[in-house]
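TL;DR need structure tokens for one chain.
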Amino acid sequence: MRVKGIVFDKDGTLFDFSATWSPWAAAFLRRICKNDDAKAEHMGRIIGFDLATGRFDPASVVIAGTPEDILAVLAQAIPDLDHGELLEIINTEAEAAPMAEAVPLAPLLDRFRAMGLTLGVATNDAETPAVAHLAAVGVQDRFDFIAGSDSGFGGKPAPGQLLAFCDQTGIAPENAVMVGDSLHDLRAGRAAGFACIGVLTGMATKQDLQDHADVVLPDIGHIPRWLEQLSG
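>> reply
TL;DR here they are.
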């Protein structure tokens, strides 16, 4: 296999999931509950987040869901809150979430580009927060393609974002790799005809991912070595 392009998930892949999204969840829940911690704890349980410990349930809708998925779950519990307003709060707080790089991103991405690889991001986050997060750590310009769940290609596990990457870059699916920390990422990759790399900087374990990936690595910093082995 000759790899020409790599598409990365964002949260749990480029960025450490817990370090980034636990502060977001706490701030978001307290905002929509007007700092009523008892109510915020209740709402946290609905989305699979423990406000007291700052931990996500592995089945939390936040881990692999889109903002619309989170909205659908919360709307059942807050029927009087305007859907548009709630979605705006989700995305506004997401833009302000602290970004914890899984590994130092700039030198790694520069290494990939020096290898002649085309890079993309496919996330179930909305596009505006995604671009803001990449820009906040100074790596937005390393990517030739950035798609969120609202970019017009759908969200994962459907393959639309990955096929759009191929359409826009001219790279065939058999020459592309999807890298992600969740089954949504890997299923999207398989559906698009990509090779798949699982990483362990999200909430999933190696056992969760290994049957759906060509390889499971500790983090994206191990990808260059995998590429070297792939090329012999």
